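Thread: sanity check for a docking pose with flavin-adenine dinucleotide

Original post by kr_44:
Hi all, I'm comparing my docking run against an independent structure prediction. Below are the sequence and the ligand SMILES. Could someone generate the full complex and paste the structure tokens? I mainly care about where the ligand ends up relative to the chain.
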Amino acid sequence: MDHKLKMTVAIVGSGASGVTCFIQLVLKYIITKPSKILSIILFEKKGEFGTGLAYGTGQEGHLLNTKAGLMGLFPQERLHFVRWMHDHKDRIEQEFPQVSPHPDAYPPRMLYGKYVQAMLDEYWQLARQKGIEVSKQQVEIVDAEVQKDKRVILRSASDHSYPVDYVILATGTPEAATFENLKSSERYIDSPWPSKRIIQTIKDKYAKISIVGSSLTAIDALITLVANGHKGPITFFSLRGLLPRVQSASEKPFQRKVLTLSTIKTLIRENRRSLRVKDLIRLFRSEVEGYLERKLDWATEERVNKNHLQLLEEDIRQAMNGDSLFQNILYSLREETYAIWKLLPVDQKILFVKWIKPYFDINRHAVPMENGIKIMNLLKSNQLEVIGNSEDIKWKGNKFVLKTEDGQVYKADFVINASGPASVIHKMEDQKLLQALLSKKYIQEYGAGGLIVDLNTLRVKDVSSEERTPFYALGHLITGLQLDVNSLWFNVEQADLLTDDLIRQFQ
Ligand SMILES: Cc1cc2nc3c(=O)[nH]c(=O)nc-3n(C[C@H](O)[C@H](O)[C@H](O)COP(=O)(O)OP(=O)(O)OC[C@H]3O[C@@H](n4cnc5c(N)ncnc54)[C@H](O)[C@@H]3O)c2cc1C
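Reply from moderator J.T.:
Ran it for you. Here is the predicted complex with flavin-adenine dinucleotide included:
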């Protein structure tokens, strides 16, 4: 068929972001009834479509870190996942007897993966009924070439070509860009996912294991180990040694008086300068002190180099009582964070990422209570130790030698890198497609991480010519321009903007 009568959209990456783009595109096409035929090709390099890295885990102890009530795959319908759990109560009770289909629950991520797959199946059938051409290609896309007529030829690792009109880049979470020097050791595991790699590589249940990092990613690796019977000592080895805080049983509404978009806009207008990170710190502190009706000694709030067990016990107590004040304030900011983030110039975003984000993340991306208690028990039994001030790791023949900035030395039989995904595109070395797009200047890097898109449409911008390109991007790829890309609800809302723009191309 003449391609002017048909539009082909490629979705590269079929994790949750790719799937929400797919279902939204199908729905909007059916509603707007354009005259052109829509063809969608879903690409996925893994064996499974729909679950992605985030929800493709085989470990039941890997829980959602966002409450179920935020996990709907449809924009502004955040409770959709909860409703789906209710609709499939009998099946869920059989397969996951401990799961409650409640908006405040944190079900296993593998259950969420089943939901994403179910939605993909449902909209796949609908697309076919409505005459949309759909196809799944289980290949890795490694290259793209934009033709003179703006069509794109995608190329797979097996050298197959796919001509398309638009490309949605939903390639998700890349590997960490750290510790290249350890890759030659068979006892080095460069990512905690897929978890079967950890289980297959570490057979000795008494081996000494060091997990690089101490965030939710590190906790995934820890849960994999202990759920599979690991008995030996485990360390978290990280820059600051900060553990995520603990999720409250239910989110406590917080009425902000100081840290508001309105105050920030006033501040910018009165000072006649752009927003700075230090303004945000000042407003946050003032919000906290206003609520407590007293001045705080902020130095005592510092969590680095403190007793981790005591901190965690206190966090669990606060979470149980619903008085995790910092968390309550940051959660209340959920809908405004993006607007505030856009007001920070790039140099200030870089500063935030470097200095503030680790503290923001431990509050905003807290650990579900169930896993918080597991970590507390592991710390109590001394099976787990958290080491901060990490400096260097070397492989010395038969052991890893880990050094801290203050000269302490630790040894480990295995190292698992859970230091988090690369945020700079040219360091996402496992993502060949991105490297090809970068070298051909089809995408450009943003100073604070990720690539540059038009924030109203998610369309990749050619910064030099201001021309619109055939590429769209969402999720981790635009970390930097956006802050909440590691939250499903945010990616769903972004997919709404993206698919609105894409559907306009049919008119
Ligand atoms: C382990 C983990 C747990 C998380 N838990 C939560 C949570 O509980 N709640 C929450 O809100 N957010 C969570 N997140 C954040 C998560 O990033 C977002 O929810 C996001 O929407 C995940 O979907 P994604 O499709 O963007 O990325 P991914 O899940 O990484 O999926 C991307 C997919 O693209 C495929 N792919 C990549 N490159 C190519 C290519 N070139 N060709 C073909 N296929 C390709 C990959 O194989 C992968 O399947 C989690 C993230 C991770 C990594």
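Residues 252 and 328 are 6 Å apart (CA to CA). Hope that helps with the comparison, let us know if your pose agrees.
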